[in-house]
Amino acid sequence: MKIVYFDCPSGASGDMILGALVDAGVPVEALRAALLKLPLEGWDLRAREVRRGAFRATKVDVEIDARVQHPHRSLDDVLAILRAGGLAEAVRDRAARIFTRLAEAEAHVHGTTQEAVRFHDVGAVDAIVDVTGGVVALHLLGVEGVHVSALPLGGGFVDGPHGRIPVPGPGTAELLRGFPVVDTGVRAELVTPTGAAILTTLAEGAGRMPPMTVRAVGYGAGTRDPAEAPNVLRCFVGEAGAGSRPETIAQVETTIDDMSPQLYEPLLDRLFAAGALDVFLTPVIMKKSRPGTVLTALCPPDSVPDLTRVLFEESSTLGVRWSERQRTRLEREEVTLATSYGAIPFKVSRLDGRIVTVTPEFAEVARIAREKSLPVREVLDQARAEARRLIRD
Q1: Which fold has domain 247-328?
Q2: Partners of 330 in the beta sheet?
């Protein structure tokens, strides 16, 4: 599976994302041809090589014709443009998701509705081309998975349509919720709303680079050229490692030494209901030689607040810690197969298309063994053998 990792040491914007993808091999003419299908007038796309510090990079500009009237557009207006643009369905759906999140964020911070949000003047055209262009570029590269580094917040103030606002702007800050960020000490706007919307919407994982075989590296330049650091975003394009799907998960932990063992069962049930992917308990020796338990839960990053609340409500802990982890999973599917014992559900995993494991649902195996007065191990081995034969046939 082809993936891309966006490394954003100096921030991210729509034109930087476009520039990096063009630099990584997306033909500008193919990109322009796809975007010209949009019913949108008064713009053009230009790519040029620039220097940012010691780096050569590609700068992509959306040039706006000042003679053309550009009205304020609502989310419905933008979605109508995408629908009428003759884009591939996957491209249209991705771009629509990005604009919907952008509208949701703006509506939230301004206390209004998505329908009332307006994308302002020339910026609306710029944003439509940047967002749609970024998605088209990923499609032209054949990218299926997007991964992103932590994003630098920036600082200071900027002037916008709503007056002087702190950096990051409220809309950008809303888009970055649940996403890893860093403060590099730079007092400037480093991540634009468009850049934040594109990356946080499309990213399957965030933080460290996932295991991958790099085939291309692209550098996209921002408009500013500060002396302190090169204003570039770079992307690594390649194949995911080991036939797996890299992703970022959160590891939530707490250590307990004063809770009744009877309370762990309902606690684990609630953690799974709140979004935990796995939960396990590890015995430890704590201070003053007290026996205790480390409870570890794995979950999607956006489920951390829900799991934390469950731990505070259902356990005796006074504190919860969490961190992000990268993991890879084998491709897997669930199938139900007709065996000599009847229909049994199986989980089948593959590595580069080759079957690695065929695992029957253990509760069903135990039920069959109990009903037929057979050893569980015998039913388990027979079910696996039959399943492998059935799948191979």
Answers
A1: Alpha-Beta Plaits (3.30.70)
A2: 244
